[in-house]
Amino acid sequence: MVILSAREQLKLEILVKVMAGMMSSKTGAQLLEVNGRTFRRYLKAYREKDVLSIKHGNGKKIPHNKTCAQIKNAVLDLIKDKYFDFNILHLQEKLSEEGLKIKRETLRKWCHEIGVVKRSKRRRSHPRYHRERMSQAGMMIQFDGSHHKWFDGRESCLLAAIDDATNEVYAKFYEGETTFACLDILKEMISKKGCFKTLYVDKAGVYGGVKREGFSQVQRALGELDIHTLLAHSPQAKGRVERLFNTLQDRLIAEMRLNKIRTMKQANDFLQNVYLPSHNAKFMVLPRNMQGLYRPIHPSYSIDEIFCMKEYRIIGNDHTISWCNERYMIANELKFSIARQRLEIRLYSNKPWTCHFAGIELKLVKVEKVKKLVA
Length: 375
Known about the structure:
Elements: H1 6-19, H2 25-32, H3 36-49, H4 69-81, H5 88-97, H6 104-113, E1 140-151, E2 154-163, E3 169-174, H7 179-193, E4 198-201, H8 217-224, E5 228-231, H9 239-258, H10 264-283, H11 303-306, E6 309-314, E7 320-323, E8 326-330, E9 342-347, E10 354-357, E11 360-362, E12 364-367
Parallel strand pairs: 1-4, 4-5
Antiparallel strand pairs: 1-2, 2-3, 6-9, 7-8, 8-12, 9-10, 10-11
Helix pairs in contact: 1-2, 2-3
């Protein structure tokens, strides 16, 4: 049995579509963010090894050239105490003088791990190249937030999603680019349009960037609907949504001023019912392939239960859990012990939190704290 990560599942799906003639190799390479030669290697390996070619051959093997932990700790101690303001090249030279020959890239990674690195001087930017639009609606949605004084002279956040193939825009105002805000707009968009294939975002923590790699609520919710999240390496990579904000700041702010928009509710009503219909009619384009990839949500799924925040707690031997500095006991009648199992807590923006085990909602009772006698 081969267990694939979300990225590997996306790679497998794209390879299958290209092999079946449902997608071009160029589009597949763009979605996987590789060049044409690498993508041809993927196809050749898939023909020879099938699904086994998706997993990397090294697996979880320890690299033979990995530096031992003792040397690493000694180098990190030197950096913290002695060389904390040296650049990487200068640091490498000084360590070499002390008999510690460390490769530059290894040294750079170690410095970033402890947050001690001297920034290099700004150099010329890398060349940027034109990228063709996706061929079908729903294949890729670019998503981002813009903090600006949109109305009434106060700052708010506009979260916007734009279809890479058609330029169709869906947007909504919020107080900030929070997890609940992102989940809310994605839930509304998917309820109206259906599930798309990939979400293209920056490396902000809320989307699963470096700060929250592996435990983003947005990635988790989209993953439950088999929607893949791609992280852009630069603002230019998702230039369509970046240029959208320039257009909106130029047009939408003036429109809302003329219509005397003052509150968040008025702004969202105007945006959804007045501005966006005319904006989409003016700026939308036809995709190369008219067969869209939006798909309806499976009837067995509850979108409200997917687009909420989910936290997990281990059930104690006495069938209690700790949550928000309080202890709660499971009040349901149990036929067997579920101690040491994982309990799922769901948090909503518009109703109290609930807890679930094996898909069943459980009832919890707060355990009163014991008061100590005052001496």
